[in-house]
Amino acid sequence: MERGLTVDVLFDLAHFRVHTTMKSRSSYIIPLPTTVIGFFFAILGKSRDGYIKERTKFKAGAKLLEIKGICRENAQLLKLKRGKEEQTTEELIILFKPKYRFAIWGNNETIDELYERINEFNFEFVPYAGINDFIFFDVENPKLYDKYEETDEIEDTYLPQNLFSSLEMSENSIVYNLPYVYSGLPKTVIMGLNVKFKLKEKVNVIGEVPLYDCFLRL
């Protein structure tokens, strides 16, 4: 048997590196399912090998509830080589005080343990926001679901480009079209804040959060 869990997570700072960036470190404004699953697995104390082995057994997603700002940090790097010095600039995108609703769907035993640990603040490892210096600030409102809903409209979240049909925007809308990597090949994910997406087909949701597998498939 399977069930789901949602929890609201607040970070002071966050950075979720776009898969294809190297020198200039762009960030997804909403973490992808792989990151969300990793967040929950950290609470359970699962190793990296355990994460790689078990992540395909779960579905996950995230919804952006609010964000205070998006910052750019520039660092001047000094490379020392024999006989000369080289300087280069690295840019890091930092999300300021983002609040998300994380969702995960999987076997009852794991979901129930997560729910209990979150309620008791009993975390094996401290979850972080993409960079281990950026740990979570608070988690609240854990909620269990015995069934999911189906919808072809989602808000303030993401979807793979192949599911995109149309969108509704307002003056304050933010929309990003960003790459992610699946099986070594670049794909495209669309995500946004204050925006409603219309999908080509229905997706499973809990707590208004769409559920995808770790490779952003239904």
Strand content: over 45%
Q: Can you tell me the overall shape?
A: globular
Please give the domain count: 1
The average pLDDT value, as a whole number, equals 91
Helical content class? 10-25%
**Beginning-to-end CA distance, first to last residue:** 19 Å
Question: How would you characterize the overall build of this protein?
Answer:
- The chain is mainly beta and 218 residues long.
- The chain has a single domain, classed as Alpha-Beta Plaits (2-Layer Sandwich), CATH 3.30.70.2660.
- Helix content is 15%, strand content 57%.
- The protein has 3 helices and 13 strands.
- It has helices at 33-44, 48-54, 108-120; strands at residues 2-11, 13-14, 59-66, 69-81, 84-96, 99-107, 128-129, 131-145, 149-155, 158-160, 164-182, 185-206, 209-210.
- The strands form 3 sheets. It has a 5-stranded antiparallel beta sheet.
- The chain is globular.
- The model has no long low-confidence stretch (mean pLDDT 91).
